[in-house]
Design goal:
Elements lengths: L5 E2 L5 H4 L2 E5 L2 E4 L2 E4 L1 E5 L2 E6 L9 E4 L4 E4 L1 E6 L4 E2 L2 E2 L4 H10 L2 E8 L7 H12 L6 E7 L5 H13 L4 E5 L10 H14 L2 E5 L3 H13 L6 H5 L3 H17 L4 E3 L5 H13 L4 E6 H5 L10 H6 L12 H10 L5 E3 L7 H4 L19 H10 L6 H15 L17 E11 L18 E11 L2 E5 L2 E2 L2 E2 L12 H4 L22 H6 L6 H18 L24 H6 L6 E3 L13
Parallel strand pairs: 1-23, 2-7, 3-8, 9-12, 12-13, 13-14, 14-15, 15-16, 16-17, 17-18
Antiparallel strand pairs: 2-5, 3-4, 4-24, 5-6, 8-19, 10-11, 19-20, 20-21, 21-22
The structure holds N-(aminocarbonyl)-beta-alanine and zinc ion (ZN) (2 copies).
The site of one zinc ion has 3 residues, from loops.
């Protein structure tokens, strides 16, 4: 694909391409599909419908037989990250260029301070790295990699003044970014007080450190040791512990990169018992490949698949994870794009613990999921939009600016050709590495046009990104998808006393019936939420719960070709799910 890089300065982007009509396509949103045209002006979607009145001189894209979807939102990237003594190959230019090529028009990257470093200083560094390079809009999460009262103050400042509404804590990477449980309590509680969203990397870092020592002592030094040092149980334990800690401090929770069936099961149980929403994110890597690669005899090949948590050797994992996404046991898919050059991966040639962790995924995330989920009939296009775009927009409070094709939204649009066939390969991808973990996979379904803020950046397959075209997206705290819609939200619990504990009165002590004491209150809430999830009704906060085991809409009958063939007779398909999809925590 030709790739034209242009500088924002020196060209008048607006006057050359400020009006665009996407005609004859099928518009897909999380809550339904309709045959409609989309008119864009000055970077904003102005009209969606049929028989639109359009000014002369407007460029028209014919989307007959194509799907017109909100641009993807990748909630998890690491561009220009220094980690384990190496720096990622994809910087903010090459990383966002690759993302756009694959249909993603917004990324959310992670500011990761060193232990002891000011969070604000790290945030400013990230803004400096990213602002002039990004080819699409981007937001930031900030890592809480150490704990002190100063960190707490800086978290408040980041929320109030710098557009941050999510913080990531690590339960792994002992002696680097890991927090202990006491620190996790503080960090999550602070998030809840700030109405920000705590995120966790869920793996038991102490067990990993112990296992690593034993494996190395036994002479297991190759990449297979990475997986052996941190099996599914090590992930599932941390998922459960993170949920328990969140529940103790009455915080919502977002678990990043969920990689195993055991971890998803722990999440599924926690989502049923807890009072605050929990979101689970998985990765393109998880659905698109598996942990058998760690046993490849070629070090380069095996090391290129090293990420944490690792890919699982159980070959049934990818399909189970797709099913979990379809069933709303998982809510989002990211890439965790964190690419390292071959030379950097080789740092761990004699010791798997020194292989920098990370894989590609920003470019192929959408096509890989389409292939594994939609082409197999496990997911319909609306759910695809939910998990690749709309839910991230809602959770990180970017909706409806992002994540939906609607008048007034940013013109971040993908014209998706469900029949476009290609073979994924490092030889033609846009990442800065010469390895692709999806190498050789044939996919049917890819973007034909990608429009970023109204500009056609993938133009009938030709990539024409603009370095610096993207903007930083400040994200406001108190996301309705996380903390409830303000109008219907229950009164906020007082800070630091989320369970409203009270002491047992002397009268209660005397007659031995501690009615309404802390434990009972807590138990009542648990029973309440159990009966709610069992009946499929609303939660105490008014959120819709999915029926246990309920399958995705049209999961067995949906067929892309049928949908597209019926396009001229059927103008609109409304799905059963409310805006926000079937998620139990979105409304
Ligand atoms: O292996 C991974 N996931 N690398 C990136 C850092 C992280 O833990 O997200
Ligand atoms: Zn992580
Ligand atoms: Zn990551």
């Amino acid at each position: 694909m030709p790739d034209t890089q242009q500088s924002v300065s020196g060209i008048n982007i607006k006057s050359s391409q400020n009006r665009l009509l996407i005609k004859n396509g099928r518009v897909v949103n999380e809550d339904g599909m309709e045959d409609a045209d989309v008119y864009i002006e000055d970077g904003i979607i102005k009209q969606v419908g049929r028989n639109l009145i359009i000014p002369g001189g407007t460029r028209t894209i014919d989307a007959t037989g194509k799907l017109v979807m909100p641009g993807g939102i990748d909630p998890h990237t690491h561009f220009e990250l220094e980690m384990m003594g190496a720096k990622t190959a994809d910087d903010f230019y090459k990383g966002t260029r690759a993302a756009v090529a694959g249909g993603t028009t917004t990324v959310i990257d992670f500011v990761l301070p060193q232990k002891g470093q000011s969070l604000i200083e790290a945030y400013n560094n990230w803004r400096q790295k990213a602002d002039s390079k990004v080819c699409c809009d981007y937001g930031l999460h900030v890592g809480v990699t150490w704990w002190s009262p100063a960190v707490r103050r800086e978290m408040a400042q980041l929320v109030a003044e710098h557009g941050i509404n999510s913080f990531k804590m690590f339960m792994a990477y002992k002696d680097a970014w890991m927090l202990d449980d006491y620190e996790l309590c503080h960090a999550m509680e602070t998030c809840a007080e700030l109405r920000a969203l705590p995120q966790v990397h869920a793996e038991n870092g102490n067990i990993i450190a112990h296992n690593t020592e034993k494996l190395l002592a036994a002479g297991i030094t190759g990449p297979e040791g990475h997986q052996l040092s941190r099996n599914e149980e090590v992930e599932a334990e941390a998922v459960n512990r993170a949920c328990v800690i969140a529940n103790q401090v009455n915080a919502p929770l977002y678990i990043v990169h969920m990689m195993s069936k055991s971890a998803v099961e722990a999440l599924r149980l926690a989502r049923r018992r807890q009072r605050q929403p929990i979101f689970g994110e998985t990765l393109a890597a998880t659905v698109g490949t598996d942990g058998t690669h760690y046993r490849n005899a070629c070090f380069r090949h095996a090391a290129a698949h090293v990420l944490s948590p690792p890919l699982r050797p159980d070959p049934t994992t990818p399909e189970a994870i797709v099913q979990a996404l379809a069933d709303d046991d998982l809510q989002l898919i990211g890439s965790d794009n964190c690419t390292f050059a071959e030379g950097d991966k080789a740092r761990g040639r004699d010791n798997f613990a020194h292989i920098p962790n990370g894989v590609n995924g920003a470019e192929d995330r959408m096509a890989v999921l389409w292939q594994k989920a939609v082409n197999t009939g496990m997911m319909d296009p609306c759910r695809f939009v939910a998990v690749t775009s709309a839910t991230a927009a809602r959770v990180f409070n970017l909706w409806p600016r992002k994540g939906v094709i609607a008048a007034g939204s940013d013109a971040d649009v993908v014209v998706w050709d469900p029949r476009l066939q290609r073979t994924i390969s490092a030889s033609n991808h846009h990442h800065a590495v010469d390895f692709n973990i999806f190498e050789g996979q044939n996919v049917s379904g890819s973007p034909q046009y990608v429009i970023v803020n109204g500009r056609v950046c993938l133009d009938d397959g030709n990539l024409r990104v603009v370095e610096g075209l993207g903007k930083f997206l400040p994200t406001r705290a108190d996301s309705p998808a996380v903390y409830g819609a303000p109008a219907h939200a229950p009164a906020a619990p007082p800070a630091h006393t989320p369970h409203s504990p009270r002491s047992v009165t002397s009268a209660e002590h005397t007659n031995g019936t501690p009615t309404g004491g802390y434990e009972e209150l807590h138990l009542n809430k648990q029973l309440e939420s159990m009966s709610v999830s069992g009946s499929g009704c609303s939660t105490p906060t008014g959120r819709k719960m999915r029926e246990p085991g309920q399958r995705d809409l049209q999961n067995s009958t949906f067929s892309i070709s049928k949908e597209m063939e019926g396009a001229d007779t059927k103008t609109s398909v409304r799905v059963r799910n409310p805006p926000g999809g079937k998620s139990s925590v979105l409304w």
